[in-house]
Amino acid sequence: MHIVVCVKQVPDTKIIKINPKTNTLDRRSAPAILNPYDAHAVQEAVKIRNKTGGTISVLSMGPPQAVAVIKKSVEIGANQGYLISDRAFAGADTLATSYALSKALEKISKDNPIDLVICGKHAIDGDTGQVGPGIARRLDIPPITNVIEVSEVNKEEKYVHIKRKQIDGYEVLQSQLPCLLTVEKEINDIEYAPLTNMINAARYEPVIWSVNDLEDVDKTQLGLKGSPTIVGKMFSPPKLEGGKRIEGNPDSQVEQLMGILMERKDLLKLKTANS
Amino acid sequence: MEENQGVWVFIEVNDGTIEGVSLELLGAGRKLADKLEVPLSGVMLGQGVMPLANEVIYAGADQVYVVDHPVLKNYRTESYMKGVCVLAEKYKPEIFLYGATPNGKDLASAVATDLSTGLTADTTMLDVDVEKRLLEASRPAFGGNIMATILCKKHRPQMATVRPKVMKALEPDEGRKGIIIEEELELREEDMRTKVLRIVKDVTKKASLAEAHVIVAGGKGLGDIQGFQLIHELAEVIGASVGGTRDVVEAGWLKHEQQIGQTGETVTPKIYFAIGISGAIQHVEGMKNSELIIAINKDANAPIFDVATYGIVGDAMEIVPKLIKQFKELSKEKGGEMSYV
């Protein structure tokens, strides 16, 4: 099995700060991390490889410092990694990103045909979840999103069974291999990496490709040029109309609140033994 | 690009029922279509879905494109994408909206790639620049700290997925007339590379949050997992469901499916208790349409008070136990249990 996991370096959005005057991001305020969903994607690839044997490659697109997330993936258990890094890729939206990544995947597949592509459900900085299905369409393989369990991988007969999260439950799907999965966090727990992985990761230098290393690339489909969507404007979320404060000491506050709730018979009523 | 006209809404059908978000989008789509002076259309795929076409018209559409085919019995990216792309290429809409459900997002991403057009994810506000015929799709960005308006200037259709429960459906009008257009599509089961083996409904989960009448939600302001027990206690006493912010889920105090907000569940209960929640927009997006919001927080400047119907500035550790006590006494006094309209 050759599994390729697509990973992204993201700012930790829990920490990132907004400059209130300019409404822009202070990227320096947030440390760059491996997108948490992608960590689960790598972990799932490790679980599958431990059963089926084979190789895990990771692929990322980003500035040179994004090698850090490939090293992190090697620490989790990936065998090798590729970074596509070029100014030509900068400013890409999801359509242009999936195009660039699919071109890299085609190149990786030439040396070692890909059986399975795994992505995180979405990146925590963009939150779109659109790149995974986009890659699958470009490679013409079936995408399966919101995966919560990979229950069977049959590499001889080339199929997988997976559980896919739905609005009100889940569904069990069978898909031919190769296919592309995007995984939810609940699919697995990230395990502590063995020391040997950490040593490998520290020493590991991923392959870095520029746009010219890729083949049959239509440069008009890359980066800002190849992106149909643009950010028109940024603004602070609209202020919602704040309501009434309940003043007083805690006892009085609670009493007033109970009074309000009891008055709202349209929302709350007491089902009592007498009524 | 000029030939593209009309606003389309993908109508998601599960189990013979139209998803609520599709009806909400028909309500939102109606406004866009009226502004642009173009028709609003629903696009519905499935098996045996024809009887639902009138509902789409009652909810605001001028016309409905229906593809009824056995291969479309259950949602699969391959078959649905093919159907939707064929229709979009034939009739060329200028705006195309989908619910941001697992299937809606999956489908829209695949369709956008095939039609080589832009797609904005998880939109929470929609408007249109009539003169430029540009869809203005706004969404919380960067973890919800800020809103971004995304435009797609040169490609058509302009597509967006829209979060459930942020737009309003119209009252169904059974007197509304519209056109139903049935489309034939060549689909063969043997061409499909995926199969749906089983569908498992987890009704309890859906009822527990998305459809709960009362929700008690807690945030990091409760201090630790012990402090968070107060949330469970209050919920228990009043028979409510429990939810929380992304922070508390990531801290392991609650399960993933109990997360309320942009990346979790969107909820619209009658009563929402926000306790120890500061009110980052990311969370607010998921609960602001609740009917009555009661916020309890130490920080008088917490943004949650901008959303709350009633706000109590105070220590949850002190207020909530008193509230629990009051509710307990009340139910003892009345000799019954709490329930909600």
TrEMBL record, chain A:
Q: Which CDD domains match?
A: ETF_beta
Q: Where does the Electron transfer flavoprotein alpha/beta-subunit N-terminal domain start and stop, copy by copy?
A: 22-217
Would you say which domain of life the source belongs to?
A: Bacteria
Give the protein's recorded name: Electron transfer flavoprotein small subunit
Q: Which GO terms describe its molecular function?
A: electron transfer activity
Tell me the classification of the organism that encodes this protein.
Bacteria, Bacillati, Bacillota, Bacilli, Bacillales
Q: Which InterPro entries match?
A: ETF_a/b_N (IPR014730), ETF_b (IPR012255), ETF_beta_N (IPR033948), Rossmann-like_a/b/a_fold (IPR014729)
From TrEMBL, chain B:
User: Which residue intervals define the domain Electron transfer flavoprotein alpha/beta-subunit N-terminal in the entry?
Assistant: 7-196
Cofactors named for this entry: FAD
Mind listing the UniProt keywords for this protein, alphabetically?
FAD, Flavoprotein
Kindly state what the record says about how the cofactor is bound. Answer: Binds 1 FAD per dimer.
Cite the GO molecular-function annotations of the record. Answer: electron transfer activity; flavin adenine dinucleotide binding
Give the binding site residues for FAD: 245-246, 259-263, 276-283, 297
Superkingdom as given in the UniProt entry: Bacteria
Any one biological process term the GO annotation gives? fatty acid beta-oxidation using acyl-CoA dehydrogenase
The record's section on Pfam families has: ETF, ETF_alpha
The Swiss-Prot or TrEMBL record describes its family as follows:
Belongs to the ETF alpha-subunit/FixB family.
Protein name per Swiss-Prot or TrEMBL:
Electron transfer flavoprotein subunit alpha/FixB family protein
- Say which species the protein is native to: Mesobacillus boroniphilus
